[in-house]
Amino acid sequence: MKYVDEFRNPKGGKGILADIERLVAKTGRTAKNPLKVMEICGGHTHAIFKFGLQSMLPEALELVHGPGCPVCVLPVGRVDDALSLAVRPNVIFASFGDAIRVPGSKGSLLEAKAEGADVRTVYSPSDALELARQNPNQKVIFFGLGFETTVPSTALTVLEAARDGVDNFLVFSNHITIVPTLRALLDSDGLHLDGFVGPGHVSMVIGVRPYDFVAAEYKKPFVVSGFEPLDVLQSVRMLLAQIVDGRATVENQYRRLVKDDGNRVALEAIQEVFEPRATFEWRGLGSIEHSGLQLRAAYARFDAEAHFKVPSVSVPDPGVCECGDVLKGAIKPWECKVFGTACTPETPIGACMVSSEGACAAHYNYGRLNPSSRLRTVS
Amino acid sequence: MCLGIPGQVVEISDREKKLGIVDISGVKRQVNLACVAQGEDLSPLLGQWVLVHVGFAMNVIDPEEAARTIELLRELGEAQAELESMQKSGARP
Ligand code: SF4
């Protein structure tokens, strides 16, 4: 398929790269004081590393990797809470594959499974609901994770459980939302971001309007972007054009999939089932107001936290792990002392090394494409 | 988890629950079509390509976009992982 190659081939991006170079030069920024553009979606982080996009860009432009990997931002305390649920008698704990490997303070779900807990890997919340139907005498707890791309699926599954009266189905919700997270990043000191590459698939659900405040209140440009290497480069060019013109608006590079208003059915399902928590803890970012989602009172009978008490204590990251600073974009993965030595995707110490969307894992896997990192060659 | 995977709707399996069978790179599985259904009649979705996130179709896409996205996921090594977890997962249609 020729068009695939053309679209993917970095050479096809030559014109865009030349534009980027020209625009960056116009800003007068230098390698010492680079422009900083953050991508907030783990999918973008993965693509940026895989295709070595940073190395194609001028040194005066730095891509900062944001906290867009839901598995990575899950704090140790919540992993411990998940474990406390999974080891209960008469419980089947159903989780996405990535999440069962995240280390908590007393091990991971995978280790709990090896010791006898009934932990199942599921692809979809609907598979967890099916497990509940097949095992009416057990409680099936679904480990709800993710931003607005996965929240609608959990919400629709809860609605189905309610409609069909599957009362042994429960959700342990760790769902998070993008807007309060952005606000927290914008309010945090020391980041000095110049613009955002906005998430593609989250925006498919929520649309582009919820980002208006980034431009209106914080005067930062925001471009919703697709995942192809050329999509990302185009989005960077759009951001730079805004910066050079002294504009800050929300633009949509991913028009082919993202509508201004998002997906109505998905939004209605979220609205019906979930409400914001007063506050939710993130790995590395601390507590962020209204960033987490919990089931509304009307659906409390499906809420694992309403059924079972979870310890719900905040547990610090293991001493050596600098995931928090990686997630904030304050340090690069390879600046962590144990990166690639004690901490690898096979033996992760922190969550950023577990998911392929995590900056540490992406860097470990594709570091060879990035000449600025002092990394081993992995083939 | 953030990236959806494209598949083609090959069958409407449950009109009331808005479920269909979607062929995702050769793996057929039941997918919830509620978010892409236009009204009650699901038949216009037959043959269409959709972007599937954890078992839920979140968007209708054109075949070219689908081909490009599959290619991208292959290169990222995500396609294989998704398909494996789909096959291993508890429920089957
Ligand atoms: S390399 Fe490992 S220990 Fe270091 S910050 Fe990344 S995940 Fe944490």
Walk me through the topology.
The complex is a heterodimer of chains A (379) and B (93).
Chain A: H1 2-8, H2 14-27, E1 35-39, H3 42-50, H4 53-56, E2 61-65, H5 70-73, H6 76-86, E3 91-95, H7 109-114, E4 119-121, H8 125-134, E5 139-146, H9 151-164, E6 169-175, H10 178-187, E7 195-198, H11 200-206, H12 212-216, E8 222-224, H13 229-245, E9 250-252, H14 264-273, E10 274-276, E11 279-282, E12 286-289, E13 293-295, H15 304-307, H16 323-327, H17 359-366
Parallel strand pairs in A: 1-2, 1-7, 3-4, 3-5, 5-6, 7-8, 8-9
Antiparallel strand pairs in A: 10-13, 11-12
Chain B: E1 5-14, E2 19-24, E3 27-32, E4 49-53, E5 56-61, H1 63-76, H2 78-88
Antiparallel strand pairs in B: 1-2, 1-4, 2-3, 4-5
Overview of this protein structure:
The complex is a heterodimer of chains A (about 375) and B (about 90). In chain A, about 40% of the residues lie in helices and about 15% in strands. With about 375 residues, chain A is α/β, with parallel strands linked by helices. Chain A has two domains: about 1-75 and about 175-265 and about 315-379, Rossmann fold, CATH 3.40.50; about 75-175 and about 290-305, HypD, alpha/beta domain 2 (Rossmann fold, 3-Layer(aba) Sandwich), CATH 3.40.50. The longest helix of chain A is centred in the middle third of the chain and has 17 residues, at about 230-245. The two termini of chain A are about 25 Å apart. Chain B is built from two helices and five strands, in the order βββββαα. Chain B folds into two domains: about 1-60, SH3 type barrels, CATH 2.30.30.140; about 65-95. Chain B starts with a strand and ends in a 5-residue tail after the last helix. With about 90 residues, chain B is an alpha+beta fold. The chains are: A alpha/beta (about 375), B alpha+beta (about 90). At the A-B interface, α1, α3, α8, α9 and α11 of A face β5, α1 and α2 of B. Iron/sulfur cluster (SF4) binds near residues 349 and 352 of chain A. Iron/sulfur cluster binds near residues 321, 336, 338, 339 and 352 of chain A.
